[in-house]
């Protein structure tokens, strides 16, 4: 779990492509709205606060250039402990926090916004998330192990082997994993492969080397999958990264993962 505060006052509106990153994001907005558009369905929503679950498709995020709030990044098993399985009943949909947590997120956001200093806000957030954690239901150790294996292997571990190692039958494994993580194991494996492929391409590996390393059948298969999950071919995504490596890394909301791109022109 990690979080940050932000106060943006930019000269112009901002548009960013948000791609599948394997995390659940809770945005606690103090003022101004963020528009999110599901690029798979074309559905747009304007919200000050939101919960973005695991997803396998791209999202366009837009705002006026002025945003103020806090962002909490959660592993999906931690989101399950904090919010239960309600958010997983509507997979891949960005939700209003009240849909999964009642008014408690709204009340917390109001309390955070009233505090004058970031140090006080982080202290209150620590306290409240700690309380919610203690009151929540822990993720199954077997589900957590399977999630970590998918992360560790970049999605390359056979799903059948994971199910076998948990001691559950295939169907029971799939149901429990979906309930506590939010997507099927195969969908999570796709996200992990995407993340690994984009990291390797960004580090300068050739497309052929990357496809082989990530377990795609060939370069064309990798390109199709990247386009399906991000909306753009790999070449356009890489061009959308900022010129310097430091700036490119600063686009990402989660250390060690590729999360965001300037909107590819």
UniProtKB/TrEMBL annotation:
Q: Which domain of life is it from?
A: Bacteria
Name of the protein described by the UniProt record? AraC family transcriptional regulator
Q: What range(s) does the HTH araC/xylS-type domain occupy?
A: 140-240
Pfam families the record matches: HTH_18 (PF12833)
Annotated transmembrane regions = none
- Origin organism is Streptomyces actinomycinicus
A GO molecular-function annotation: DNA-binding transcription factor activity
- What keywords were assigned to this record? DNA-binding, Transcription, Transcription regulation
């Amino acid at each position: 779990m990690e979080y940050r505060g932000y106060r943006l006052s930019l000269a112009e509106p901002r548009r960013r492509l948000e791609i599948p990153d394997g995390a659940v994001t809770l945005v606690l907005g103090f003022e101004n709205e963020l528009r999110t558009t599901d690029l798979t369905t074309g559905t747009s929503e304007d919200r000050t606060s939101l919960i973005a679950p695991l997803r396998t498709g791209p999202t366009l995020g837009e705002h006026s250039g002025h945003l103020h709030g806090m962002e909490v990044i959660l592993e999906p098993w931690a989101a399950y402990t904090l919010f239960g399985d309600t958010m997983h009943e509507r997979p891949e949909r960005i939700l209003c926090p009240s849909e999964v947590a009642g008014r408690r997120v709204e009340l917390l956001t109001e309390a955070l916004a009233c505090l004058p200093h970031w140090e006080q806000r982080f202290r209150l957030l620590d306290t409240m998330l700690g309380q919610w954690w203690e009151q929540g239901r822990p993720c199954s150790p077997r589900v957590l192990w399977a999630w970590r294996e998918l992360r560790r292997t970049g999605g390359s571990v056979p799903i059948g082997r994971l199910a076998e190692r948990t001691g559950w039958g295939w169907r029971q494994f799939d149901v429990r994993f979906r309930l506590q993580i939010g997507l099927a194991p195969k969908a999570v494996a796709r996200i992990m492969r995407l993340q690994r492929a984009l990291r390797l391409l960004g580090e300068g590996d050739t497309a052929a080397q990357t496809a082989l390393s990530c377990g795609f059948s060939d370069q064309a298969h990798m390109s199709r999958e990247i386009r399906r999950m991000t909306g753009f071919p790999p070449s356009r995504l890489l061009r959308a990264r900022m010129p310097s490596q430091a700036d490119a890394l600063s686009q990402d909301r989660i250390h060690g993962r590729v999360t965001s791109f300037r909107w590819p022109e």
